[in-house]
């Protein structure tokens, strides 16, 4: 037998198929160890054949076959080519996406528990062997877990028993169930007419992609789950993506409740062992639904019947590390390969997706009402300029304070949203204007009151809090920009008896960190939840009747064509947390620019108005999707190395531009807005292109220009232009 192998080395020069001879049981999808250029390398078998394709005497044998069952599903070999072509990465890098990282590089980690059992109790022991005798006695009571058994009776006694053939060790594969909650009873709900109609049009549409635009609380989740139930009935499988699985424990619970052990989670917060087990349950066919964040799009499922992407507008669906793939694009490839539906859902679809839906490329399902026609919460705008004029320098408007007091008095819960962690964003010297900055990054340091230190939010570096200004020695230091820690401190001052929880990157540690805070709040162990972006996602807390958005226009002022869209989405999402059950909800939206049109649309939940206006602007100014923003980033530790590569990239693209000036709307090279992150300087060639036709060549330029000292890579319509 012979096999075709992709060697697991991420280098363009070895990005081809190599042939080896192999044992008969080897099959496509297995991982192997092969001799490669004087070393041993890992590889993926992508095909097998009975006869060699060239001189058999020159073909080396595979050294080792890792898998009895192939690790990769057959679909990988088709997707591998598409992904490698599209994002210009070696095929090995494309294949890696389909395996949990702990399976690669020999770190095969099926986790076992070792047990010891008695096999021959009658062998006579020496007189001195008291411990051994005691151990045998213990084993007569049943098999024991090996590690603790050794602790009790001593390693040498246990080894002696094994050597004498008295006892034997055996292994059992350990099943780890992350995030329990399986035993809850599931009672089906009757679908509303709108939900049934949605399901009908998904099933009967001839379009692969279906966009569900449904306001928060309109019952989208129930549609997803019902559709999954349908495809499972047909013997098929499903992938269900959410922006961040740890932020949506309720979604997981619902899935578990309904589908029990058929659902498996793919989630970076799990331990390596848990991750592997869940992956294996999917690969072996035991589990049929993969739920997870963007990387779960690579779930090892065959015979897919549905792919669902909830909150499809969320920027986490764009990968920010190589390969920089768009999850929706990969999902489409998989949906087309499997001939199944891709369902995108959101209360605030991305402008790109909604255009596709209105132009007929996607099917469109509109759910304008909440379940039971429950009203959307009323949004009150608080003008912070007039608050400041009145001498209110606290983070809370009068309106928010009054609403908070009332909510607490009624025994309901409130959520306060502010997308900035720490106590203050910056520390400034009032005498000379000095701002504390990170040594590794070109950003200011945030003050964290709990640890009384300064922290860099880009590289995580910690610094001692300043006693005096290092520039002028002045001692009048001022905090700029309120963060969540200060909000909690101030709230405690205003409402001393209120119980407050905070949820941001500093408070959620460990794999269950999010889950613990959210479930404590869900159990009403706190009255107010203060948090960043992570509290905006699809939580469903019935007692929350007030949401405060402290700095609604923070994201409006980013110099990004999507800042309006982001702001609209954020307000709608956060507001959607309020008044989901019986009581009516309210939202107080604090802003320094109350007249801004984005806020006006958001207050009225006018997605269509927002969308039409946004499309007009994008068209008139030639911004995506009416153009493509393409950025080639160049990063390096040394300025010189970066500049050399930058120059090369720039001239190569400039040559493209000269040959096709029409295609370029904008083209320039410059420092990136943040000039340094984690000790690496950052430069960019930024362009706006009429179409994607030059993209493959720009990717090639980046690959070709990268050196060991400086990395060049391409970003398409990056979510973040810093
Ligand atoms: P969305 O995903 O659109 O935000 P959900 O699916 O979370 O909305 O539904 C909002 C609320 O309505 C949830 O509490 C859910 O349990 C409830 N719900 C959904 N569908 C139905 C139904 N058919 N009958 C009764 N309640 C429903
Ligand atoms: Zn830093």
Automatic annotation (TrEMBL):
Pfam family, one: Zn_ribbon_PriA
Function of the molecule: Initiates the restart of stalled replication forks, which reloads the replicative helicase on sites other than the origin of replication. Recognizes and binds to abandoned replication forks and remodels them to uncover a helicase loading site. Promotes assembly of the primosome at these replication forks.
Residue stretches making up the Helicase ATP-binding domain: 201-367
Binding site for Zn(2+) 2: 438, 441, 456, 459
Claim: Acyltransferase is one of the keywords in the record: no
GO cellular component: primosome complex
SMART domains assigned: DEXDc, HELICc
Sequence intervals crossing the membrane: none
Top-tier EC class: isomerase
Protein name: Replication restart protein PriA
Record-linked CDD domains: DEXHc_priA, SF2_C_priA
Cofactor note as given: Binds 2 zinc ions per subunit.
Boundaries of every Helicase C-terminal domain copy: 461-618
Subunit details: Component of the replication restart primosome.
Cofactor field: Zn(2+)
Protein's GO biological process: DNA recombination; DNA replication initiation; DNA replication, synthesis of primer; double-strand break repair
């Amino acid at each position: 037998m012979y096999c075709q192998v992709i060697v697991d080395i991420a280098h363009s020069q070895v990005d081809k198929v190599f042939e080896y001879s192999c044992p008969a049981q080897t099959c496509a999808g297995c991982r192997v160890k092969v001799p490669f250029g004087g070393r041993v390398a890992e590889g993926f078998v992508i095909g097998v054949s009975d006869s060699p394709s060239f001189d058999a005497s020159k073909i080396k044998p595979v050294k080792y076959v890792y898998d009895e069952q192939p690790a990769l599903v057959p679909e990988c070999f088709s997707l591998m080519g598409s992904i490698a072509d599209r994002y210009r990465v070696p095929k090995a890098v494309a294949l890696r996406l389909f395996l949990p990282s702990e399976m690669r590089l020999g770190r095969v980690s099926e986790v076992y528990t070792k047990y010891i059992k008695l096999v021959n109790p009658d062998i006579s022991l020496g007189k001195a062997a008291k411990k051994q005798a005691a151990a045998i006695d213990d084993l007569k009571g049943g098999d024991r877990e090996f590690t603790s058994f050794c602790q009790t009776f001593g390693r040498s006694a246990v080894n002696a028993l094994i050597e004498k053939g008295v006892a034997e060790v055996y292994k059992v594969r350990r099943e780890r169930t992350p995030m329990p909650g399986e035993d809850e009873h599931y009672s089906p709900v009757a679908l509303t007419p709108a939900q049934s109609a949605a399901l009908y049009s998904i099933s009967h549409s001839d379009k692969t992609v279906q966009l569900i635009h449904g306001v928060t609380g309109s019952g989208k989740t129930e549609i997803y789950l019902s559709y999954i139930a349908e495809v499972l009935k047909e013997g098929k499988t499903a992938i269900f993506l959410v922006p961040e699985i740890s932020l949506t424990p309720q979604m997981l619970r619902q899935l578990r409740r309904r589908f029990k052990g058929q659902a498996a989670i793919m989630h970076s917060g799990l331990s390596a062992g848990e991750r592997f087990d869940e992956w294996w349950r999917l690969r072996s066919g035991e589990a049929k639904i993969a739920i997870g964040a963007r990387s779960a799009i690579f779930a090892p499922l065959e015979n897919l019947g549905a792919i669902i992407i909830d909150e499809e507008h969320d920027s986490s669906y764009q990968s920010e590390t190589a390969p920089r793939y768009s999850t929706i694009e990969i999902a489409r490839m998989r949906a087309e390969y499997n001939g199944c539906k891709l369902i995108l859902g959101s209360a605030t679809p991305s402008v790109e997706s909604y255009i596709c839906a209105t132009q007929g490329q996607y099917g469109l399902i509109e759910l304008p009402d909440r379940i039971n026609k429950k009203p959307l919460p009323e949004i009150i705008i608080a003008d912070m300029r007039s608050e400041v004029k009145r001498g209110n320098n606290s983070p809370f408007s009068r309106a928010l304070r009054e609403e908070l007091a009332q909510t607490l008095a009624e025994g309901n819960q409130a959520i306060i949203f502010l997308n900035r962690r720490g106590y203050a964003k910056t520390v400034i010297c009032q005498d000379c204007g000095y701002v504390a900055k990170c040594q590794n990054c070109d950003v200011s340091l945030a003050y964290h009151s709990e640890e009384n230190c300064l922290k860099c939010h880009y590289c995580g570096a910690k610094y001692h809090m300043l006693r005096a200004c290092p520039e002028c020695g002045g001692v009048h230091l001022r905090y700029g920009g309120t963060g969540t820690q200060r909000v909690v401190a101030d709230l405690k001052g205003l409402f001393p008896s209120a119980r407050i929880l905070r949820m941001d990157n500093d408070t959620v540690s460990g794999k269950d960190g999010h889950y613990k805070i959210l479930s404590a709040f869900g159990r009403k162990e706190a009255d107010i939840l203060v948090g960043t972006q992570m509290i905006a996602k699809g939580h469903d807390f019935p007692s929350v009747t007030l949401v405060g958005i402290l700095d609604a226009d923070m994201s409006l002022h980013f110099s990004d064509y999507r800042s309006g869209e982001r702001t609209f989405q954020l307000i709608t999402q956060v507001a959607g947390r309020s008044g989901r059950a019986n009581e009516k909800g309210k939202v107080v939206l604090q802003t320094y620019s109350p007249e801004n049109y984005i806020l006006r649309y958001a207050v009225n939940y006018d997605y269509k108005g927002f969308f039409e206006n946004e499309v007009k602007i994008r068209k008139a100014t030639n911004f995506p999707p009416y153009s493509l923003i393409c950025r080639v980033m160049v990063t390096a530790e040394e300025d010189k190395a970066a500049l050399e590569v930058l120059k090369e990239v720039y001239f190569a693209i400039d040559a493209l531009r000269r040959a096709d000036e029409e295609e370029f709307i904008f083209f320039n090279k410059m420092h990136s807005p943040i000039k340094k992150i984690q000790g690496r300087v950052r430069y960019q060639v930024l362009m706006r292109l009429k179409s994607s036709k030059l993209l493959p060549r720009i990717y090639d330029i980046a690959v070709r220009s990268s050196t060991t000292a400086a990395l060049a890579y391409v970003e398409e319509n990056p979510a973040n232009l810093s």
